[in-house]
Design brief:
This protein has about 100 residues and is mainly α. Helix content is about 100%, strand content about 0%. The protein is built from 1 helix and no strands. The termini are far apart.
């Protein structure tokens, strides 16, 4: 009976040692997965931050483009006004020249 008991104790101790070894391996694998997850989270956050910066820059560029379009429209109106004024002056000068002839 002592031999059988000793054999059973040896089996239990072996299984305990195997379990301990597997538990350590599990912890190592789990830590690697946690590290990988954290790395990926960090990359996603960096991507989101970059996307936000691009969106902000795009918004600023769009705003500037709108300002430039407004300036162009205003300049075109000013040019039309000046062209009309110059044409009026030319017509007056031409009229005065005809009367003088």
């Amino acid at each position: 009976m002592t031999t059988r008991y000793n054999d059973q104790i040896a089996v239990v101790e072996k299984k305990t040692a195997d379990f301990t070894k597997m538990a350590k391996q599990y912890k190592i694998i789990k830590q690697k997965l946690v590290n990988e997850l954290n790395t990926r989270k960090s990359l996603v956050q960096e991507t989101l931050n970059g996307k936000e910066k691009v969106a902000i820059q795009f918004g600023e560029k769009s705003k500037r483009l709108k300002e430039l379009q407004n300036q162009l429209y205003s300049s075109q109106k000013d040019r039309e006004t000046l062209t009309g004024a110059v044409e009026g002056v030319v017509d007056c000068i031409t009229g005065i020249k005809r009367e003088a002839s």
